[in-house]
Amino acid sequence: MIQTNLALKKLNGIKPKGVKLRDDTNLEVLLSVEQKVFERFYACDTESEQKFYLDLIQRSDDRRKFYGRSFREILSGWLDDLFRDFCFSEQDLTDYIFTRSGDDDLKFPDSLITGFYSGCLLSRLTDQNQQQNKQTEIVLSGVNNSFNYLFYFAKNLDRLFVDGFRGYRLCSHLGDFGTFNVCSITNCKGDYVADQVKSDQENPRLFVLVNHKGNDGVRNQCIPKGGLFVSYGCEGSWAPYYSDAADYAFIGERINEIISGESVVRPHQPHFRSRQKITKKLFNNNESFRILNLTKEISKSSPEEIVKLANEIYNINKQRYERE
Fold it and tell me: Per residue in 82-133, pLDDT tens?
């Protein structure tokens, strides 16, 4: 049996028997369930079963999406059993992320499992609030906090704001076979950030990437019709790909060129495979310039202001979408 070397410094006071005890805080419950996820992952009866789980989470080829999605569904089933009727809040999830983000002893593949777990927690919270017609807004303002695979393969999310974090594959595969409304990643560091961010529902979506430092980010994102991708002030060797279906993308220096009048405001060219299927519509100048200037303002704003500005961009885009 493969043993996991977990850093349990922050689990003091959590009793190993049972998931939810009367005196446990919600944070302790989330950490305790995480430990039980590790126990299930490593407590395999055969070597082939263990290899099966490891193969699911470690695939690095073109089938990463399929295998990662499969493990997410397995993990979600485990959580249905471990949590049962337990509910938690945005603050509980935030407390869990910051507790784990200070744990530098968590090594691969444990760090990847924790990333999947954080993604399942985000999706579970979003679903829980949706059933009560409540919005889910997660705001994480770190000061160089580290969390590899943060919210990895989160299926459903509403409004997510991550600022000042560092890590490998931060917020990758968000919205896979699910949905999101706003994803804002600002002032973060790390390679492969927001890899294959997507949403399978056709509604306005906003993806913000500002002041990021890292390589190979924003690959193969797919935001549906009505969606908007804005990016400014990023550093690293990467060329963002944006979906043909999204109505608009404002990226990097093009923002400055449009504001200064050096570039015409028009959509990107669709990919040849969908050239005949996608109809592009222009923003009017007033909406365009408001979005451009708000994006630049995000690059020099405090975390609290970033949330306000990103939500304002989202509302502008939503009004445009509903009008057309």
Answer: 998 899 999 999 999 999 997 666 788 889 999 999 999 999 999 999 999 9
Host H or E run for residue 41: helix 26-42
The per-residue pLDDT for 262 is 64
Distance in angstroms (rounded) separating the CA atoms of residues 51 and 88 = 33
pLDDT confidence tier of residue 276, bands split at 50, 70 and 90: very low
What is the mean predicted confidence (pLDDT) over 271-294?
A: 59
Specify whether the CB–CB gap between 157 and 175 falls below 8 A: yes
Q: Phi and psi of 186, rounded to 5°?
A: -135, 145
With left for phi above 0 and alpha for psi between -120 and 50, is residue 29 left, alpha or beta?
Answer: alpha
- Per DSSP, 137 falls in state E
Compute how many other C-beta atoms are within 10 angstroms of the C-beta atom of residue 139: 16
* Token pair in block for residue 13: 């006071």
Using the structure block, give the residue that is written with the tokens 């954080």: 118
Residue closest to 136 by CA, chosen among 157, 161, 163, 165: 157
Please write the tens of the pLDDT for every residue from 213-240: 999 888 777 777 778 888 899 998 776 6
Compute how many other C-beta atoms are within 10 angstroms of the C-beta atom of residue 39.
12
Residue 32 has pLDDT above 90, yes or no: yes
- Residue 2 has a pLDDT of 37
Cβ contact 116:72 at 8 Å: yes
For residue 189, which phi and psi values (nearest 5 degrees)? -135, 140
Distance CA 171, CA 209 (A): 11
- Report yes or no: 228 and 268 within 8 Å, Cβ to Cβ: no
Question: Measuring CA to CA, which residue among 69, 9, 71, 75 is closest to residue 36?
Answer: 75
Q: Phi then psi for 179, rounded to 5 degrees? A: -155, 160
The answer to whether 5 and 77 have CB atoms below 8 angstroms apart is: no
**What is d(CA 320, CA 324) in angstroms, rounded to the nearest whole number?**
6
Structure tokens at 241: 């790909």
